[in-house]
Request: fold
Amino acid sequence: MIYDLIIIGSGAAGLAAALYAGRYKMTTLVIAGEFGGETATAGTIENYPAIASIDGYDFMKTMKDQALSLGVKLADGRVDSIQKEGSAFKLSTKEETFEGKTVILAFGSRRRHLNLPNEKELTGKGVHYCWTCDGPLYGGKTVAMVGGGDSSVKGVNFLGEYAQKIYLIAKGKEILAEPINLDQMKKLGDKVEVLTETEVTTIVGDKMLEKLVLSKSYQGSSDLKVDGLFIEIGFDPDTSLPKQLGLKLDEKNYIIVDNKMRTNVSRVFAAGDATNHFGSFKQDITAAAMGAVAATSAYEYKNQSKT
Amino acid sequence: MIYDLIIIGSGAAGLAAALYAGRYKMTTLVIAGEFGGETATAGTIENYPAIASIDGYDFMKTMKDQALSLGVKLADGRVDSIQKEGSAFKLSTKEETFEGKTVILAFGSRRRHLNLPNEKELTGKGVHYCWTCDGPLYGGKTVAMVGGGDSSVKGVNFLGEYAQKIYLIAKGKEILAEPINLDQMKKLGDKVEVLTETEVTTIVGDKMLEKLVLSKSYQGSSDLKVDGLFIEIGFDPDTSLPKQLGLKLDEKNYIIVDNKMRTNVSRVFAAGDATNHFGSFKQDITAAAMGAVAATSAYEYKNQSKT
Reply:
């Protein structure tokens, strides 16, 4: 069969698109390698409007159930190739090929990880990638931020409202951030220690993060006891499928979309962290909204093509 | 005191902005005439990603509690005047005057009502203003759509996927809609009856909508038995405050914002249905996302102004 819509990705953007597409009665397939995107493993969510507090996995599970209850189909796998063939797109995973009249790219943008042992196991248990989301958990606590760019400094400034002590750990000789953000960080005074030319070599903890081991001693010890670790070392948006389709990307490889989540290629829409739409502000609420908008645009296309 | 941020409106956009602002530790005040915006009285919500089903009132109550728990203040009242005075904005209701360094306009866009007896009482109980939201409740049922423009025809086409019979009731001699949407409506065949030069004069029902009385008989009777009534006769965005501030509006009086929800006036942001951002697609999920973005932009301004 040829689906009305194929969605790549099952994070907040992909599954919100699936919810709306299901309600529009479009035949819809969601293809995803890993269920629930970044959100499913990120721990407790407390900044999603109208849900006081929910585990990321449960959050994505509810979205999945919403889509399934509307007849949306799910397929496992990573889409390796996508081609326009006449009036349909052909999408292939290692095992299968699917066809759809319209496509929504909602595969997110993978945050860079340190790739250390324990990092994955302790994610949401002391290790975090989203300070906007999880910073408020560390009121009065000691935290570390790994990163040397503007986002990590913005993160330190945000954490400054909550934590009592913040270590900014940077690989390079200096922190490269906007002067305005560096100035604000300076105003936090003793609360912030900047450790340059330093890397985290080990993440220690059994069920919860206990401490870090650093590549360079700080105050006579390479052990650094922290309650929380925030990793803010950038994103790697996947460019393979956008390039196969000839999509326009911005300078950071995010897909350029308009306010209707349309890309420069007809019948190809994009939503969520893979796009440039809300800049560096990448949240579940914005991803879900973009997904809803993208599905609506795909539905509008479907109606036009009927006539 | 001078608030870091004053938000006008307590619908999904306003309270999502309050949630984010609270997490940014901005001193924040929400001023609203009517709690919860359109959503609070619109009945069951089944198209908000990650919430399977919730009453509109409970939905807005959760958002309100989220904001309150973060220290956000709420004030009752309608803001009649807003003026920039030096580095702050002065906002006045009938009773009080408040000052804020930044402002988010999230006062929505009031849907036009028929202004008939029973209309308010039966809202969510057979009477609806949002077919995208509530259309799926009418699988196999008979519904009426009041309106004569493009949105009402799009609504009929959407309802065509669910309802078994749809009456499109229009005041004028003809339906003014995009040809493509009219063509699609024609394809629904007998399922749709278009009643022109006809008005709904009475909404009949005790606890649930029972029937409509029409200004002109249809098949020998002015009574029309329907299970659901959708009213799609346009919106009236409030232009008073935008005009006082000198904001740029689009041709339909929606506030023009960029992707960061900035208006043309510094330190004034807008979010939700009052804006043009996602065009005619006006949903809780998009309003909430815009609120979160607007609060983030206000927070960025606050940080800049500190230095």
Summary: Chain B has two domains: 2-111+235-306, 127-231. The longest strand of chain B covers residues 209-218.
